[in-house]
From TrEMBL:
Superkingdom classification of source: Archaea
Domain 3-dehydroquinate synthase N-terminal span(s) in chain numbering: 1-186
Keywords of this entry: Amino-acid biosynthesis, Aromatic amino acid biosynthesis, NAD, Oxidoreductase
EC number(s) reported in the record: 1.4.1.24
Any single biological process term in GO: aromatic amino acid family biosynthetic process
Pfam families (alphabetical): DHQS (PF01959), DHQS_2nd (PF26558)
Free-text function comment from the UniProt entry: Catalyzes the oxidative deamination and cyclization of 2-amino-3,7-dideoxy-D-threo-hept-6-ulosonic acid (ADH) to yield 3-dehydroquinate (DHQ), which is fed into the canonical shikimic pathway of aromatic amino acid biosynthesis.
Keyword Metal-binding: no
Catalytic activity: 2-amino-2,3,7-trideoxy-D-lyxo-hept-6-ulosonate + NAD(+) + H2O = 3-dehydroquinate + NH4(+) + NADH + H(+)
Domain 3-dehydroquinate synthase C-terminal: 200-374
Record's protein name: 3-dehydroquinate synthase
Family of this protein: Belongs to the archaeal-type DHQ synthase family.
Amino acid sequence: MKFAWIMAEGISWDKKKEFITTALESGIDHIVDFTDVENIRKLGNFTLISDVDVSDITLVGRNGEGDGTLIIPEDISQSKDLAAISGFKRKGKQVAAYVEITSKKHEELASLLGKTADYLILVGMDWTVIPLENIIASLQNEDVKLIAAVSDYKEAKLALETLEYGTDGIMLCPKDVSEIKKVAELIEKIESESYDLKPATVTRVEPVGSGDRVCVDTCSIMNFGEGMLVGSYAKGLFLVHSESLESEYVASRPFRVNAGPVHAYVMTPGNKTRYLSEIETGDEVLTVDKEGNTKSTVVGRVKIEKRPLILVEAEYSGVVLRTLLQNAETIRLVGEDEQPISVADLKVGDKVMVYLDKSARHFGMAIDETIIEK
């Protein structure tokens, strides 16, 4: 997953405070700092990257031979930064290496440090694509997160999209609050997944008795056409609409999806599924709109209650899918015309939107394996 850190050094505390609080409000919770650690700790709960003892991630190189100010040894394997990183790693600490790329030698040092550090922060005075491409290529098989230091949205977009994968993250050194918000929106857009929804024909609608069903209350408001991908089969999930519509029976609850029974799958970020019974406060699920666009959404509460259930079966191109839902007027799927259809009105021949997955699932992850579901 792509991510952003923020560093706001060399400015007044009032300005730094504004930048950091804006970052936290925008979902950026990793702060790189060296001079105001105690004050920053009072602003919220976040991850601190620094060279101080109380840091969550230890930073190496900013004031040493990796910052472009000192001569790098001819044999870069003798780098003091490399020795420091190895020492911290032996103590069980997470380490971020910091390297200013001002020469080919610094590029080589970065590639070396990236083989040991957990994170590699790359700082360029005037970024061009080529040095970044070289380092990404040299470390593509290493277990290190590459981070490019950037000053604005344009540089962030370049870094995150270089080569096929781009860097894993960026460290934003903003000059203006607006850049923080724009970069946060960029990260959200890049991380947003899209699912190709298909219109499946309903072949069966049948009450089946009672069971334990799950309501998922999120920390976000869902609009018309939004819901969650839920189903009994991993090979295909139904788009279950949120309770964002008004009803003569109950008030609108646009934060809620009355999702299905405890055994059902629900789609979560990273194209993974989880059982509805596993979801709890603080977890993340995907909300999906009628075009298949998604957002990662935090779960605020889950309610499991015994309710009457209804079986819905649908077919698309020879693939038969089934799911169980609460048998109530307020529970809706999404039709081919992108309009919500209550299960109380659903009938054979109707078309509802589903997501078909060619992969099987093992512990919620897509795998290339044949599994029969019925």
